[in-house]
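Onboarding guide, step 5: your first structure request.
Type a short instruction followed by the sequence, for example:

Predict the 3D structure of this protein.
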Amino acid sequence: MVQQKPLFPERFYFYTFNEIQVMSFLPVYYYFIVLSFLVSLMIYKAPRFSYLKLFPPFLLTTLAVEYVGSYLNYKGENNLYIYNFFSALEFSFYLILISLMVKSPRMKKGMVIASIAYAAVAFTNIIFIQGMKTLHTVTYSLGCLAIVAACFYYFYELFRQRNAIKLTRNPGFWICSGLLFFYCCGFPLYAFVNFWFRYKWMIQSFEDIVMILNIFLYSLFTIAFLCSRTRKFISSSS
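The system replies with C-alpha cells like these:
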C-alpha cells in the first residue's frame, strides 16, 4: 500500500516548484539559507557586532533540519516532530538575539526570561497536548506574537535615539524587518492552518506564500551580514 504524502505547511515539508524539471527534494528557499550561511561567515571579522556571531551555528543547524525534514517527507514519512521542536527553539533563539540588540536592561532580561518560558511551554504543548506529529499551532502562534512584540520594541528604541543612524547600514534593522514581516504574515497562516487545508485549492497558494516569506527572510539576513562589513555604521546596540 502506497503511503499518501502528508499535507503540511511549506515551511514544514518538501515542496517542488516543478516536479518534472526539479529533481532535488530540497525546497527552493533552502538555497537562500545556504547563501545566507556562507555570507554569515564574514561576520567573524567584524567583532563590533557580537550578536551576529550567533547566526552561523544557527543557520548551519537550520540547514541540517531542513535537509533531514525534506528528505523524510520525500520518503513519505511524517517530519513534523523535527520541525515542531526546532521551531520552538527558533523562537527562543530570536528572542535572545533581539535581547542582545536592545539597550534597556529590563527588556533584555525580560526577553531572556520570555525565551526560556516559551521553550518550556512549547515543549509541553508538543509532547503532552497537541502531539509531536501535529503542528503546534497554539504555541507557534504565541511565538509569532512574541517575536513581533520584540521587534516592535527594537524599532521603538531605534527611532528614539538622538544620534543619526543610517538604517541601510544597520544589521539589526534588516534582521528585525525580516522577522517582523515573516511572523506578521506567518501568524494568520499557521494559526488557522487547519482551516486553510480544508480546501485543496488553498494548499498551492499557501505553499507559494510561505516559500516567498522564507526567501524574503533569509535574503534580509544576508543583507544584514553584508552591511555589517561597512565602516560608517553607527550601532544601535549597547
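Each response can be followed by summary notes, for example: Residues 99 and 174 are 16 Å apart (CA to CA).
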